[in-house]
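Q: I have 253 residues here and want to know how they pack in 3D. Can you give me a structure?
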Amino acid sequence: MADPRTGAAELVRRLRPAAGATSLADQIVTQLRGQILSGRLQAGDKLPTEQELCDATGVSRPVVREAISRLKADGIIVSRQGVGVFVVDDKRRMPFRIEAHHFDDQRNLLNVMELRLCVEVEGAAMAAVKRSDADLALIDEALTAMKDAVADKGSAVEEDFAFHCAIAAATGNELIEGFLRFLGVFVIPRPLLRMRPEDPRKGAAYMERLVEEHQAVRDAVAAGDPDAAREAMRLHLERGMAFNQNATTDEFG
């Protein structure tokens, strides 16, 4: 166990929230959680006081209090009245989280897309085997909405997400659908949104291909072909990963 007067305090002194889209509290929560999950702050370690955290991070006491409150709510730290705040002894109580700001970083974004690949490829195969007529109707409804949004030159992010949720629901496994909904609409990144305005033809080609990929998944699920559904979903997600890796280039052809 680290000496609370040295180990924890020294680690916290390294926390330096940066200016950006995410709140200071978000950044402190993420950094402290990272110190705990990595083992740098160990079970039973005492955190510095609020004032020490303020001095170390350069933020106000309300920001520190918000961060500490959120970590307590997550079950990562616990208060002992009159003694202080400590890292919990049992890390199994810690919830799984993906913060919204992770989608602002390309490496983290690709990690999330790889996670989707692990879940949704086999999920599509399951949907092809288990889907009902009602499930297929919801898939078709989502796909039609996506096509309409693309035709109106929209990003179709919400419609895209609805399609993937409909496929997940068709597996008949509520945990698969629940997991995808937990990730939320942020799992539908759009390199198109970062393209230059003078590239409308490439943007249109990207969206047309996106619709074709979703149509292929839908058709395989409708046909009850798990192998084809698995391959169509894999192709779609892997192409999405490739597009986002090249998001700052012109390679959207």
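Q: Anything worth noting?
A: Residues 17 and 134 are 49 Å apart (CA to CA). The radius of gyration is 22 Å.
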